[in-house]
Amino acid sequence: METALSETKYAVIYDLHSHTQASDGLLTPEALVHRAVEMRVGTLAITDHDTTDAIPAARAEIARSALPLTLVSGVEIST
Question: How far apart are alpha carbons 39 and 52 in whole angstroms?
Answer without folding.
Answer: 23
